[in-house]
Amino acid sequence: MSEIFKDIPVIKYEGKDSKNPLAFKFYDPDKVVLGKKMSEHLPFAMAWWHNLCAAGTDMFGRDTADKAFGAEKGTMAHAKAKVDAGFEFMQKLGIKYFCFHDVDIVPEADDIKETNRRLDEITDYILTKMEGTDIKCLWGTANMFSNPRFMNGAGSTNSADVYCFAAAQIKKALELTVKLGGKGYVFWGGREGYETLLNTDVKLEQENIANLMRMAVEYGRKIGFTGDFYIEPKPKEPMKHQYDFDAATAIGFLKAHSLDKDFKMNIEANHATLAGHTFQHELRISAINGMLGSIDANQGDYLLGWDTDEFPFDVYEATLCMYEVIKAGGLTGGFNFDAKNRRPSNTYEDMFHAYILGMDTFALGLMKAAAIIEDGRIEEFIKNKYSSFNSEIGQKITSGTATLEELAAHAEAMGDVKDVMSGRQEYLEAVMNSIMFS
Ligand code: XUL
Ligand code: CO
Fold first, then answer.
1. Ligand 1: residue whose CA is nearest its atom 3
2. Do 135 and 277 have their domain in common?
3. Is there a single domain that holds both residue 307 and residue 425?
4. Which residue, among 377, 371, 387, 386, has the nearest Cα to 428 in the 3D structure?
């Protein structure tokens, strides 16, 4: 098999003073941070769809990049060329995981039986490529939003026949995930939502989605899938109202339908900001509910109201993200670059530049988050801020044993509160800056 990215060497760590565009400046896989190797803190994954399939087509123009990889597009030869390209790409960057949708890895046929045959063939091929490498599958999923049959949704469709197609795709994608040893299975609610209530039965749609997830869990466990199921929240796009709006909404939905034991969150940075939250907020909400599973690492644009899926370069954001991840004890999943090159960045070299940028950004984020923790001032401040709950009355409140009457009596005995303590936001932001730039 011939090399596809001929002019690209294996990407090595050269340190922050390097000017070599094809080298890591901060990602040093063996460097130990807080007692663990960087590569263990940061299990990076390649997203099959952006990296090997998307070639730049947007609403206003066609492909700008060559993702044929020397084969005729839409054929099984092309599907295999993408596997070859993907494995060469991951090996050159030292990426250990990949994520895929069913339709990313084969061209969909007119009949699902033929699509499934193609999926068997390509996953056999992927397995042979995995042999002798340390590359694994992070998660799999079914694309239940691109095919026109899903125009009214998949689990939320009006059509029982379409619902069966969604079930069939999930069944197959779960089998493939197990075959490839995937750690997780993702539900991103592509068209699970609505444009107008004038044509929508929200209750029925949500119950049907929950039933589909329940069947997926039952089948997955039956065929030996021991990993986590993930919901990937997103507030809008493609639908105006997406049911998995944000982490809090998705967690509430899972609890309401008793699915919370099998599911965690896959938090995507750009989805968080579209929901009007910070990335950090979504990670914290997931973590405090014991449901921080995996991350789709990318970045949005605050001036644009859609999912731009940019490679992350904002080190502040990455630092705050890594702070949450470290505090939560790490991820059961990994960091999937659900990100694409900008349309004019259309060469093979640009694909590597993008991953180097993303991996270096998270390496910096990891080191800076570790520095925040080692510095201790921020954590110490938070601990002190709530220290009144260590008092006798405070402990009654936090243990849930207080009554309204005794709290009122406590207030009356005081007459008024003397000091509630400053929030010190500006001081803490300055601490953050001093750590970021030390
Ligand atoms: C869409 C998105 C998806 C999911 C997988 O916004 O993020 O690519 O990650 O279906
Ligand atoms: Co995503």
1. 188
2. yes
3. no
4. 377
